[in-house]
Amino acid sequence: HPTTDNTPEFLGISEPGGLWDQLGGPENAGEDIVIGVIDTGVWPEHPSFSDQPDLAVVGGKGNKKNAAYGPPEDWNGTCQSGERWSQDDCNNKLIGSRYFLEGFGHFGVIKGDYKSGRDASGHGTHTASTAGGNANVPAAIGGLDLGYVSGIAPRARIASYKVCWNDEGCAVSDLTAAIDMAVADGVDVINYSIGGGPALLPADELSFLFADDAGVFIAVSAGNEGPDPGTVGAPAVVPWVVSVGASTQDRTFDGIVTMGDGVAAKGVSLTGGVDPEAPLVDAASASHDGDDLCQYGSLNPAVVAGNIVLCRRGAVARVEKSAAVAAAGGVGMVLYNNDDADSLVTDNHYVPSVHMNYTNGMLVKSYLDATGPTATASITTGIKGTQDAPHMAAFSSRGPNVTALDIIKPDVTAPGVNVLAGGTPTPLFGAPDELFQAISGTSMSSPHVAGIGALLKARFPYLSPAMYKSALMTTGSQDVKKEDGVTAADPFDIGGGHVVPTSAADPGLVYHTDVFDNIRWLCGAAPQSVSPDFCASLGGAIDSSDLNLASIGIADLAGSQVVTRTVWNVTTPGEWTVAVDMPPGITATVTPSVMNFTNFGEPQSYEVEFVVGEDAIYDVPQFGSVTWSDQYGHVVRLSLIHI
């Protein structure tokens, strides 16, 4: 049987020669690496967090202690008791749990949530199980057998830090306290599927600066405000974190709506079906006020009862629409987007549901308009299907980085659409009594990168977080489409590219920045944050373009500019040659154009002089690259942006 649902296979991690093989198989991949998940908590009884893997496979509760493994020796964390949580809820897999509510609790009432590390949302359980959940855990939703799922680093330990409450938000004071505590506890990796609007230097960004200095690899969601430009949010905007965009994977869950005239319309679904057919009605004619959005209380039970309802996306959460249909007595829902480019998302709906694009939604609506009160339809049970991938998710936030135009963001992209992983049986929204869900967001792509970071750290513990980040960026795949499925994605979508973990495990050359480099960058980018005397003692400010990142961004290029980079050799010594791909009207000269490395770990520097020609294009972003390659097949690519 398949060992995973999809993304470890899609990313090549579980394939022969992939990172699992390099680390001794999934039973050893991530051993003694601690992933700190700062989120909504976790559901501790979930089989993805069992320390009894055999019990997890057969669906056992698995919270018994296992002497075969446990927390690393340098682990300093604890298991904080609270509502429906005792110290026995931690184990040798889920080694720590804390919760933080002094900030949020000061301004709001905790309602519908557990005052403990227990997850009432499902978001934290999903991200934690994606990053480091056990291998080969059987998954099912609504009685549908969905095969086996695995976290990216299945042998890693999980430490949970609950900071977000009521599905309403998180206080920055709580977030900052959690980051600092996670570092003190001894985590190796942090996943932070949390963010706000673009901002430079809220408190969590500063905490992450020192977490990076402590050797912690940090993966952060880029945000869900795309596809508009300039929407990457804090803390993903700063250079010392890995900000992750969301793209599709090649597995989907298909759902088919077949209308009474025999015409079928396709979408996505992870629910049961409606068969035989049932009457089909449009929410616009089934609501009290002509509203087609299926908002709670708007539907007329006298019209909806026993029927499938066509609903338009918008205004309220998707699962709230199926809840409204169920409350009015409906037996199914067809949900359609307002635009064909919008993502199609599987949710744990309250009634059998299919989510489809605008074109197919209009097909159903046209049938309804033509047929009237005799319209009928059936809905298939959701089944696994395949699709072309990766394409950017329409919701994924995009560059430019409006807080620092010379710092390219996001850094990479990873699977973030319809990711199958853990959930809570008592969700604030969505069908209850389910332990799994397939949901979407950059919140879902970030833990993929956190898990990969854990594997890289287990494979090469001597590298810095910046070097792991560099390895992911310089080996990223450029074979990514925008959300239209046709146009090639650019660095404002994907940064360095779609992650290729096996290539990142053998990057050849890596770039590194330390805490003093980052503070010198702050001396120029946010001078109010650092004392002038301290900046002077470090050698003064570093321009954003000169920060030693695995990318080059140049805003307002006039005449010429020289940019310096330093690389470290982490492979067999040899000769490296450079190739440049420049936007129209700009030339680049790299000095030296050949680098010879004689030792592992050896650093060398090079300069790139950019010169503007008469035919240069301004006011429209232009993209290029600087790529080094050696005789062993390594390719180290830096994305370049000129604005």
Q: Which terms summarize this structure?
A:
643 residues, 8-stranded mixed sheet, 7-stranded parallel sheet, 30 strands, 22% helix, globular
Could you tell me the radius of gyration in angstroms?
25 Å
Please count the helical segments.
Answer: 17
Please tell me the overall pLDDT.
93
> Which structural category fits the helices and strands?
alpha/beta
Q: Using the alpha-carbon principal axes, give the shape.
A: globular
Our estimate of the beta-strand percent is 25-35%
User: How many angstroms does the end-to-end distance come to?
Assistant: 50 Å
Care to count the β-strands? Answer: 30
**Which percent bin holds the helix content?**
10-25%
Which residue ranges are poorly predicted, with pLDDT under 50 across at least 5 consecutive positions? 55-68
Major sheet: 8 strands, mixed
Q: Can you describe what's shown?
A:
With 643 residues, the chain is of the alpha/beta class. Helix content is 22%, strand content 26%. It is built from 17 helices and 30 strands. Strands 11, 12, 13, 14, 15, 16, 17 and 18 form an 8-stranded mixed β-sheet that branches. Helix 5 runs parallel beside helix 12 (442-459) and helix 6 (172-185) runs parallel beside helix 7. The protein is globular. The two termini are 50 Å apart.
Write a brief caption for the model.
It is built from 17 helices and 30 strands. The protein has 643 residues and is α/β, with parallel strands linked by helices. The strands form seven sheets. Strands 11, 12, 13, 14, 15, 16, 17 and 18 form an eight-stranded mixed beta sheet that branches. A seven-stranded parallel beta sheet has the order 2-5-1-8-9-10-19, sandwiched between helices.
